[in-house]
Design goal:
Elements: H1 4-22, E1 53-56, E2 59-62, H2 68-72, H3 75-78, H4 108-135, H5 159-163, H6 169-172, E3 176-177, E4 183-190, E5 199-209, H7 224-236, H8 251-264, E6 268-272, H9 275-286, E7 292-296, H10 301-310, E8 313-317, H11 322-335, E9 347-352, H12 364-374, E10 377-381, H13 396-400, E11 409-413, E12 423-427, H14 429-438, H15 440-444, H16 450-464, E13 466-467, E14 486-487, H17 499-502, H18 505-528, E15 540-546, H19 548-559, E16 565-566, E17 568-570, E18 580-585, H20 592-609, H21 621-626, H22 628-633
Parallel strand pairs: 5-16, 7-8, 7-9, 9-10, 10-11, 13-14
Antiparallel strand pairs: 1-2, 3-4, 4-5, 6-12, 11-12, 15-18, 17-18
Helix pairs in contact: 7-16, 8-16, 9-10, 11-12, 16-18, 18-20, 19-20
């Protein structure tokens, strides 16, 4: 093809043919990844990777357009099919059950060896710096004074980055390409100088993706949501992306905000083009000097940044400790503002629905009891819980069976469960109207683009279901906490609607598959003897590694298996120094066989690295895999 336009046209036509073929697909279950996982070994695993290329005007384009068969065969790598209804579960709080299981403490020798490892790292690292500055000054120019100028970097401040993170940099910053679905494609690379520089090898590896926040599996290049996004690009065009109409909004902005409000169960909602900025720009509009923010000690950095910008006083309470929160409330209410001791203008308590580093839920029922008693305002960050928890996917309120209107401000993002970008603020209409004018998001941030808005609308409607008959229903006509299917009149009239989106079966299937996968992996790891944090229904599963040397080994052993597995390694400063961990991020796109693959790898590597320090009864791996459904359905762990 001689031009980019002709190439894109060929891709579009092949994609359309592939989607027609996918309607006749009879596959009921996706098998586990084959042992031959390298993309370069198969020409059918990706759409464009293996087509012959030629160079035109400095750009590379395939000589031959991809066939519909190539596009069709990528579907299973994005979302694993599983028709077994036994591998389903509904995540909800069981009244009378244990809200949070006590965290197990590791043996003393594990903590001692961890501290000794960091001590050895610090001593050897400073010794190398001392000798290196004198023997190889050219390698330490950025840490030394040069020609009367101060050092560009502080050797003390950058010590942790240079001496620890640099050594395991390949575990933190692995380049990838393609859709981060059930599988993901790694761009292979090598480093001859201990991760200072990298060189691409030119090969790619497809790996099982257990590291993305793709909770409901909407990160797909095919399907009902992808068709809707493609149609929005045709309708609005590239030039309309970011354009502000009707006083700052496109028609899609208004439809998306109304739909989000209905989905959350609140009066109104405000959307933002960036998740981090949703917190950091909205909190200063809620509180100011003379106000008090009481924050959980493990709240996200965006919350901390927003509180600093607001100028309000801030106090922190112990993570998820209601006794600590109540004691702090009594103190600040009785003492008032510093120096003057006047009453606070406003007290705002901020918690998260699901803490992404710990994998546990906020004790929302207990917080609401304190709210009734002490009359403060409540802000709940549901970045990770919205769409991932509850029978209806409405987040932590849905999980506990609480009316969302009992919470003053509900915040969430579209970057996790919805496969889009941006965030939202939902609550009382008067509050949202005020935030539209006083929040920095509306005045300074760019508008969300039409394709992203369409993805938000399509994925949300897919979870809720669509009512074709109810043409004239208003989004706010029902006062119940979670209204039923959204009327088709509330959606863009040009949006294509897949049958599974209309009847809601697609969204319900994704919610129940995610709940099964999360509960299965959480409990199976503990039965194998690992130390884990978090709630059983959390899609984020932290497995504790402790020792800094084990972080790199664990990640590399997982990535170099016959069936490669990509994981997230988390260490200081994101976590306390001695509790480094690996986080498994589960998705509805994973099958039961995929979870078994992860468990098999963890079982083997756990024995090798001495990670099985839990006190829970040890079960054989084969028994766990055979009794998966029973393990998930158990009310309490044995």
């Amino acid at each position: 093809m001689s031009t980019a336009a002709s190439y894109l046209s060929a891709v579009s036509q092949a994609d359309a043919r592939a989607r027609k073929l996918s309607d006749t697909d009879s596959t009921t279950s996706t098998p586990a990844l084959s042992l031959s996982s390298s993309v370069t070994s198969s020409s059918t695993e990706t759409v464009l990777d293996d087509a012959p290329f030629e160079n035109l005007d400095g750009l590379s384009y395939p000589k031959v357009p991809p066939t519909s068969e190539q596009v069709f065969k990528t579907v299973h790598s994005e979302f694993g099919h599983c028709a077994n209804e036994s591998f389903r579960y509904t995540a909800r709080y069981q009244p009378g059950g244990q809200f949070a299981r006590p965290e197990q403490e590791p043996p003393h020798y594990v903590l001692l060896s961890t501290y000794l490892s960091y001590l050895l790292l610090i001593c050897v690292g400073h010794l190398r710096d001392f000798i290196g500055k004198r023997m190889r000054p050219s390698s330490y120019k950025h840490l030394m004074k040069q020609d009367g100028y101060m050092a560009l970097n502080s050797d003390f401040d950058s010590f942790y980055t240079r001496r620890l993170m640099l050594r395991i940099d390949d575990c933190f910053f692995q380049p990838v390409t393609g859709v981060p679905g059930r599988t993901i494609v790694l761009l292979d690379r090598s480093s001859p100088d201990y991760n200072i520089t990298y060189y691409p090898t030119g090969t790619r590896t497809r790996a099982l993706n257990i590291s993305s926040y793709n909770y409901l599996g909407f990160a797909q290049a095919t399907g009902g949501c992808a068709d809707a996004v493609e149609e929005s690009v045709r309708r609005y065009g590239v030039a309309a992306c970011g354009t502000r109409l009707e006083g700052g909004s496109l028609d899609l902005h208004l439809q998306a905000e109304a739909l989000v409000a209905r989905f959350i169960g609140t009066e109104d909602a405000l959307i933002s083009s960036m998740g981090f900025a949703t917190n950091s720009t909205i909190i200063p509009a809620l509180v100011s000097k003379g106000s008090l923010v009481i924050s959980d000690e493990l709240n996200h950095a965006s919350i901390r940044f927003g509180v600093r910008l607001s100028g309000a006083n801030v106090r922190m309470f112990k993570h998820n400790n209601m006794e600590s929160l109540e004691q702090l409330l009594r103190e600040v209410i009785s003492q008032g503002q510093p120096k003057t001791h006047r009453p606070w203008k406003k007290i705002l308590v901020i918690v998260e629905g699901l803490y992404s580093m710990e994998g546990n839920l906020c004790n929302l029922p207990a917080v609401l009891e304190l709210k009734k008693k002490y009359k403060f305002y409540l802000f709940v960050d549901e970045a990770h819980s919205i769409g991932a928890l509850g029978p209806h996917g409405r987040g932590v309120c849905d999980y506990f069976g609480i009316n969302p209107r009992s919470v003053d401000i509900l915040m969430g993002t579209f970057t996790k469960s919805f496969g889009a970008a941006g965030g939202y603020i939902a609550g009382n209409k008067n509050i949202i109207d005020r935030l539209r004018t006083s929040g920095h998001t509306g005045a300074y941030a760019e508008a969300m683009t039409p394709p992203v808005l369409t993805q938000v609308i399509a994925s949300t409607a897919s979870i809720m279901g669509i009512s074709i008959q109810d043409k004239n229903s208003s989004l706010q006509s029902q006062a119940v906490a979670y209204p039923g299917p959204v009327p088709s009149s509330a959606l863009p009239p040009w949006m294509p609607l897949a049958p599974t989106m209309i009847d809601g079966t697609d969204g319900a299937m994704r919610l129940r598959r995610l709940a099964f996968n999360a509960r299965y992996l959480n409990r199976a790891l503990r039965l194998l003897g690992f130390l884990t944090y978090g709630n059983d229904d959390s899609p984020v599963v932290p497995l504790l590694l402790f020792n800094p040397g084990k972080m790199a080994v664990f990640a590399r052993l997982m990535r170099t298996r016959a069936t490669p597995i990509v994981v997230v390694i988390v260490a200081y400063p994101a976590t306390p120094l001695v509790t480094s961990r690996v986080r498994f991020c589960l998705s509805a796109s994973h099958t039961k066989e995929d979870i078994d693959t992860v468990l098999t790898a963890c079982d083997e590597i756990g024995d090798l690295l001495d990670l099985k320090q839990g006190t829970c009864g040890r079960w054989p791996l084969e028994e766990i895999m055979a009794r998966a459904v029973e393990i998930v359905q158990m009310k309490e762990m044995p």
